[in-house]
Write a structure and sequence with these properties.
Largest sheet: 2 strands, antiparallel
Radius of gyration: 30 Å
Strand content: under 5%
CATH class of the largest domain: Mainly Alpha
Distance between the termini: 35 Å
Number of helices: 18
CATH topology of the largest domain: Fumarase C, Chain A, domain 2
Length: 439
């Protein structure tokens, strides 16, 4: 991922040196397991561990591995040769009974497990921010829009609560995907355990904090990875949904909410008055990328027979990029929502911009309750509503002047009440007890 959209934690996690350190974690755990099974001399693990601590696998080691790989065209062979150079004779016990994918897939799942946790932590921060804002604005009236057109009153808090609920579901999907990725595989060539027993795999998995994949065929099946990328794609779409709402609310004709605008910030190189929703526009584009990573992840599921490496080149790009971009996007959206400027007065002004048309359904129901047939009531309300729309006239005034209108002043007063639409807002928020008190 380019630096512009990177985060420090993800950059460190996916660095080449850190990748080799994870490979070493798997290899060293396998040595310990062989020793435990009585297949290697006592003290072999400790000797190797001490040797590596004396000469850590640093950036210079990583450069050496890459130099050897340029000749061998095989990354694990280059890695084990570089280990022998670095650690000497004890390194002969490394990679016993394993095949390359045992190491690479297991180590990659360690990285994905940790990357998923970073994303979940970032998601939790955003969810908390949105939840607090939703609770704070649970009684802030605003106009609800369908098809982009004024519909009926709602609250700004309910808008945000819908986003909050979606983000919670995103977390559930990511948690499930993280669990399904946190598996180890040390089953050897074509997955038969011919050169290393299942007991070794179980011990390595336990030491690494992973579960054992119950059946493999030299690769961990990529439906696990596709599930994870799918969760990230859906998460990206949730972020785009929030971003799109903010962008619409910031439009000049709406101006109900807007991104914060910092001291010294500029909106345009040519128009000094501009305040543009640049962060949410950026996040809309980021969401497209997060969805884009899913298609190659799905295509990676199908491999030839027991194994090929058609997935490998894809994963070297999409896994670091997708996880890094998701972390970046969550942090940027948290910044947007933390600094969102909410204009409650403008919301009230927009609520009444159509001179009462938004109360048409309550007038319709009042007429029906008065004894009128629905079709007749609808005709009265609609013809006055359309006239009010076309003439930008007062809807209630037209209704009161209509000779067919049987409702009196008090009945119309009741029909034109904003608070009547918000009667059950608290009941909806009660479904999310964790938000009580704005916590």
């Amino acid at each position: 991922m380019i630096d512009r959209y990177s985060t420090p934690e993800m950059t460190a996690l996916w660095g080449q040196t850190e990748t080799y350190r994870r490979w070493w974690q798997v290899e060293l755990a396998a040595v310990e397991a062989w020793e435990h099974l009585g297949e290697l001399p006592a003290g072999t693990h400790d000797q190797l561990d001490a040797a590596e601590k004396a000469q850590p696998l640093d950036d210079a080691f990583a450069e050496r591995v890459l130099a050897i790989e340029a000749e061998t065209k095989h990354d694990i062979v280059a890695f084990t040769r570089a280990l022998t150079e670095r650690l000497g004779a004890p390194a002969r016990h490394v990679h016993r009974g394993l095949t390359s994918t045992d190491v690479v897939d297991t180590a990659q799942n360690l990285a994905l497990r940790d990357a998923a946790q970073i994303i979940l932590d970032d998601l939790n921060a955003l969810t908390t921010t949105v939840g607090r804002m939703a609770y704070r604005h649970r009684h802030t009236p605003t106009i609800g829009r369908t098809h982009g057109v004024h519909a009926e009153p709602t609250t700004f808090g309910l808008k945000l609560l819908s986003f909050y609920a979606a983000l919670r579901r995103d977390a559930e999907r990511l948690e499930a995907a993280r669990r399904n990725l946190a598996v180890a595989m040390l089953s050897g060539s074509v997955g038969t355990y011919a050169h290393a027993p299942p007991e070794l795999e179980a011990r390595v998995a336990e030491r690494l904090g992973l579960d054992v994949d119950p059946v493999t065929n030299q690769t961990i099946a990529r439906d696990r990875h596709a599930e994870f990328l799918s969760a990230l794609a859906v998460l990206g779409t949730s972020l785009e949904r929030i971003a799109t709402e903010v962008r619409h609310l910031q439009r000049t004709e709406v101006r109900e909410a807007r991104e914060g605008f910092g001291k010294g910030q500029t909106g345009s190189s040519s128009m000094p008055h501009k305040k543009n929703p640049i962060a949410t526009e950026n996040l809309t584009g980021v969401a497209r990328l997060l969805r884009g990573y899913l298609t190659p992840a799905l295509e990676d599921v199908t491999l030839w027979h027991e194994r090929d490496i058609s997935h490998s080149s894809v994963e070297r790009v999409i896994l670091p990029d997708a996880t890094t971009l998701a972390s970046y996007a969550l942090r940027r959206m948290t910044g947007v929502m933390s600094n969102l400027v909410v204009d409650e007065d403008r919301m009230v002004s927009n609520l009444h911009a159509l001179h009462g048309l938004i109360f048409s359904q309550r007038v319709l129901h009042a007429l029906i309750d008065h004894g009128m047939m629905r079709e007749d009531a609808y005709a009265i309300v609609q013809r006055n509503a359309l006239e009010a729309w076309d003439r930008d006239a007062d809807f209630r005034g037209l209704l009161e002047a209509d000779p067919d209108m049987p409702l009196g002043r008090s009945e119309l007063d009741d029909a034109f009440r904003v608070d009547a639409y918000l009667t059950h807002v608290d009941a909806i928020f009660d479904r999310f007890p964790e938000l009580a008190g704005g916590a």
